[in-house]
Amino acid sequence: MRRSRTFPILAVLGATSVLRATTGLAAGGALAAATALGAEASSVQPAAVTASRLTHASSEPRNWLTTGHDYSDTWFSPLTSINDRNVGRLGLAWHYDLDTHRGQEATPVVVDGVMYTTSAWSKVQAFAAATGRLLWQFDPKVPGKTAFYACCDVVNRGVAVWRGRVYVATLDGRLISLDARTGKPIWSVRTVDGRRPYTITGAPLAVAGRIVIGNGGAEYGVRGYVSAYDAVTGKLLWRFYTVPGNPAEGFESPALARAAETWPPGWWRSGGGATVWNAFSYDPDLDLLYFGTGNIQPWGRMPNGERADGLYSASIVAVHASTGRYAWHYQTTPGDMWDYDSDQTPTLATLMIDGRPRKVIMQANKNGYFYVLDRASGRLLSAKHYVPVNWSRGIDLKTGRPEVNPQALYDRTGKVWVGEPGAGGGHNWQPMSFSPVTGLVYIPAQELPFPYLLDREFKPQALATNMGIDQADTSLPDDPKARAQALAGLKGYLSAWDPVAQREVWRVTLKGPWNGGILSTAGNLVFEGNAAGEFVAYRASDGAKLWSFPAQTGIIAAPMAFSVAGKQYVTVLAGWGGIFPLATGVLSFKSGRQVNRSRVLTFALDATDRLPAVSPQPISIPPPPAEHVSAALAAQGAQYYARRCGSCHGDDAVSGGLVPDLRYSAALSSEEFWNAVVNGGALEAEGMVSFKTALSGEQQAAVRAYLIQRAQESYAKHGRNADSAAAAGSGTSATPAGGG
Ligand code: CA
Asked: Angle at CA 453, nearest 5°, toward 447 and 457?
């Protein structure tokens, strides 16, 4: 398939005020103000989580102590009072409107009746878990301009809790310790070099008095690492780099000296990538901390055009949690050039393999293979593709290496390679769930082919993603046939996978890709929200659809379950987002999603809360500027747009709805206004930085000409009704920026 040349972003000025006016949302403000804990939880010290409680999390079914429920990241609840016989009686117990409309990816933590969660822009909320009463909220005031370096939306995946404190990592790279009773900051440390394009979207993990956190940015040019901080003082205890640095400065460990032998000379200048941007799991008996690492940076080609494994990129890695010392690694994609990050949550389980119990680590990797490894040694036990795979013909169980299809090496062929899976992965960050009751892993799987083409003139740039692929020549032409073909290739499904037999047991086909993470429960249930705005309960044993709730908004986060005073609840954050809606514009509408109304939704049996009715919001598409633009200038602008604008504002200048659709931007009709935004950075607080250093005045004018041309084409085709993508991008879904 060919993809469109550009991914538009642009927001209409004033969209934020429209949003506030139409939704009645409270504008952010300084939110560290805290309310005392309510009567619901006053008798216990809040968040009194200890090493022993975390190690034995499954013995406290009423609680959900880490984002993944327990150190094994099972996303499994042992609760049974909501089950496959009564789930039809499930109703909304309470809802809470979040104050941004960007993607929501967090799974809340519940400790002794109090829920702690995060929302977009790294904000933190504490609720009385049974009633939804807000106890406090904290806004770290992430500068809006940070959004530029967040490849995949301004999301956050949740908190860690430890001995009366709540820990959040912010988009701009801080780790903050909050008082669980008040939400007031106790300490804050900067975990990244602020001069490099690092961001953090992952949740920290508390491990025996240490708070562990990684970072992202491998699409821009950074060196990945994991850090551990003292939970009480915030002192840095250890740091594990996933990529060796400049040899002239010496390597930090023997493991990095060994890794350096797997890179061509000069790799370190680009940072190398291999970022640890998602989740951790932990085995207390082995004291091993597990995480995955991201792609090599840049994707397309290493220095000197050489290919090499590039350790420890695209790998599952184990380090000793007390020291950060290397234990083992397994590289899922040696010499990755398809963005096959290995950052999907590593799930721990004990499986009966060849008649004996084995302690394993499992991952449904972005590259399409489901891996089962011995988690003490890192030895590969089995690997099987769970979605269609064309980049490889299989995995050699002896060497652990994939047999790579030579056609997939697009740096050598010089041709477009349509990879399956694509850069979106057969499974991305959305958590899968393992049920020890059914023995099945529930995977939010998808098929998203992606066109890879080497950028032969690639040079790293500021204010750009630096992937080394040509996004200008692989964008979708504005041709209905090509688009229909591309759409037909996009699929999403919930796959119930037997990790011992390595085969699919059942599958539920969904409307499109990019659906929510999974919760499974001992009540023989699997919960998943989807892109089309439905929150669904399936029977865990056979996938029968038993219940659903119209969430009014697409869902990508994974749900969780808890109980208070013996009554069970299920909670999920609603609010679609991430890279797919940002970059793919009209393609993302295959999923049939609606404009975001981001909320915390909590359900219980026989509950009767209701969401406010959705009133249709009038979409007013402004007539395009009448200005005549030269076709040659617009064609140039299309190239610049594809390289600099499209990954947020959407392919071919069609926004996926999270950020403004530039065809309908008020800035388009006024050159002065346009310059103020694109050159002057007038919308920096909303995440739209000045492109002064990245695009010359002539180039900026060419982009404007291209967008005027696209606006005129679209208006001629759709008139004031706009197309579906435009409707969502025309102001209803823009977001207040970090400062609120
Ligand atoms: Ca990546």
From this structure: 150
Which neighbouring-strand residues pair with 136? 34, 126
| CB-count burial class (<10 Å; 0-12, 13-18, 19+) for 52 | exposed
Residues 534-551 have pLDDT tens digits of: 999 999 999 999 999 999
Mean pLDDT for the stretch of residues 44-49:
86
Three-class DSSP category at 13: coil
Taking Cα atoms as reference points, which of 240, 237, 282, 280 lies closest to residue 259? 240
Identify the CA nearest to 126 among candidates 614, 361, 118, 147: 118
Measured between alpha carbons, how far is 96 from 345 in angstroms, rounded to an integer? 27
The residue length of the chain stands at 740
Q: In terms of Cα–Cα distance, which of 317, 319, 267 is closest to 296? A: 267
Could you tell me the distance, in angstroms and rounded to a whole number, from the CA of residue 367 to the centre of ligand 1? 12
pLDDT tens for each residue of 383-408: 999 999 999 999 999 999 999 999 99
How far is ligand 1, taken at its centre, from the CA of residue 340, in Å? 7
Beta-bridged to residue 382, according to DSSP, are 372
Query: Is 424's pLDDT higher than 70?
Result: yes
319-331 per-residue burial string, b: 16 or more CB within 10 A, e: under 16: bebeebebbbbbb
Give the Å distance between the CA of 219 and the centre of ligand 1: 6
- Of 59-63, 172-176, 668-672, least confident by mean pLDDT is 668-672
> 705: closest CA among 616, 641, 655, 648?
641
For 197, the 3-state DSSP assignment is coil
| Residue 667, SS3 per DSSP | helix
C-alpha count within 13 angstroms, C-beta hemisphere, residue 75: 33
Residue (of 155, 151, 145) closest to 119 by Cα position: 155
Q: Beta partners for 494?
A: 444, 508
Tell me the CA–centroid distance for residue 655 and ligand 1, in Å. 21
Give the distance between the most distant pair of CA atoms in the chain: 74
Domains and CATH numbers, the chain: 72-99+497-617 (2.40.128), 631-721 (1.10.760.10)
For residue 341, the CA-to-ligand 1 centroid distance in Å is 5
Closest CA to 212 of 192, 191, 226: 226
Whether the CA torsion 604, 609, 610, 612 is positive or negative: it is: negative
Query: For residue 229, what is the enclosing H or E element?
Result: strand 225-230
What does the mean pLDDT of the chain come to? 88
Token output for 105: 């990816």
**The tokens of 385 are what?**
């593709």
If residue 20 lies in a helix (H) or strand (E), which one and from where to where?
Answer: helix 15-23
Q: Is the torsion defined by CA of 477, 681, 169, 257 positive or negative?
A: positive
Element (H, E) at 527: strand 525-529
DSSP secondary structure string, 281-310? EEETTTTEEEEE---BSSSS--GGG-----
Mean pLDDT of 507-532: 96
Beta strand 440-447 pairing with 545-550: unpaired
Q: Please, which residues bridge with residue 239 across strands?
A: 227
Residues serving a catalytic function are 339
